[in-house]
Design goal:
This is Hydroxyacid dehydrogenase. The longest helix has 20 residues. Helix 2 runs parallel beside helix 13. The chain contains 13 helices and 13 strands. The protein folds into 2 domains: 134 residues, Rossmann fold (3-Layer(aba) Sandwich), CATH 3.40.50.720; 178 residues, Rossmann fold. Strand 4, helix 5 and strand 5 form a beta-alpha-beta unit. 34% of the residues lie in helices and 15% in strands.
Length: 338
């Protein structure tokens, strides 16, 4: 439900996020645009962020949040009686919202759609690398030029997508229109055979997906029932020379089992997330030549983060005008989101 700010009323808003990223997410031109529809309070600053955060919300009707914003607990909301809307200039809001947010009827929006473009592009790039066994070929090249016959492994043009999430669906769409002519398999308990076909994929069970895919890319949400989803048994089904890509959540994959498979040289792994995160110094996944571990670089980076701030500002404009929010997150949908 969208709550209109009220004709002629300029609600008070406050921006709360890590100062290290705030200037990139909300540069001066976006702040000026935001100030055209709200009275923008000074950003809170001080050594005790939780305390200044609660104080900053005392008069705010709108919170523009981002990375580093403290959680909206019941205690914080007790000191924010006027808060009516949250526009999160980042992806997941799971670490931000509490049950008290929903109980208060506060409208929540996420810029996850704006973050999806970079993540999809990154994932498709990794699929391209994995399909060519790039890490294995690069490691072998240090010793000698690899023979052409050694460059083939599992069928890298059969790609298994685990989870028809916002990112998963867009990855399927990109792969389906690629000149590489990928065969796409999809495992998702909430998708029907017909819907999978419309997306451009064949719906299969997870075990069948692992057995048939040369590249497995993980896009499922982390839920109690999906923790450790890719366990030792399923990883063992991926054919020799195959690859696992994880840009979703590290805990979806059994780290010890994956380490064994990569140590044996059977699988490649392209990991933008891990469990634990970060991996401890000296962990084998950090040094294996057939493993690429990156620190959450799949999402918006550098100048790309501006699109998150722009999305959040546009959501505030829509909320102030009483229009539907494009990125609204509901209590019912939240558990199935990343």
């Amino acid at each position: 439900m969208t709550v209109r700010a009220g004709r002629g009323h300029r609600p008070t808003a406050v921006c709360v996020m890590d100062p290290a990223v705030a200037g990139s997410v909300l540069p001066p031109d976006l702040r000026a645009r935001l100030s055209a529809v709200v009275r923008l309070a000074p950003d809170p600053a001080g050594p005790d962020l939780d305390e200044v955060f609660a104080a900053a919300l005392a008069d705010a009707e709108v919170l523009v949040s981002g990375w580093g914003c403290p959680r909206l607990t019941a205690g914080v909301l007790e000191r924010a009686p006027r808060l009516r809307a949250v526009a999160h200039a980042a992806g997941s809001v799971k670490s931000l919202v509490s049950d008290a947010v929903w109980e208060r009827g506060i409208v929540v929006s996420s810029a996850a759609d704006a973050n999806a473009g970079p993540m999809v592009a990154h994932t498709v790039a990794l699929v391209t690398l994995a399909a060519r066994r790039t890490l294995t070929m690069a490691a072998g090249y240090r010793d000698k030029w690899p023979a052409f016959s050694s460059r083939s492994g599992a069928d890298g043009h059969t790609v298994g997508i685990v989870g028809a999430s916002r990112i998963g669906r867009r990855v399927i769409a990109e792969l389906a229109r690629s000149d590489a002519r990928y065969r796409i398999l999809l495992s998702d308990p909430y998708v029907t055979d017909d819907e999978a076909r419309r997306l451009g994929a064949e719906r299969v069970g997870l075990a069948d997906l692992c057995r048939r895919s040369g590249v497995v890319s993980v896009h499922a949400p982390l839920l109690p029932e999906t923790a450790g989803l890719l366990d030792a048994g399923l990883l063992a089904l991926i054919p020799d020379g195959g690859a696992l890509i994880n840009t979703a959540r590290g805990a979806l994959v059994d780290t010890e089992a994956l380490t064994r498979e990569c140590r044996a040289g059977r699988l490649e792994a392209y990991l933008d997330v891990t469990d634990p995160e970060p991996l401890p110094p000296g962990h084998p996944l950090l040094s294996l030549p057939n493993v690429l571990v990156t620190p959450h670089v799949a999402g918006a980076q550098g100048t790309e983060v501006r699109r998150l701030g722009q999305y959040a500002v546009e959501e505030v404009e829509r909320w102030a005008a009483g229009r539907p929010l494009l990125g609204q997150v509901t209590r019912e949908a939240l558990p199935r989101l990343a």
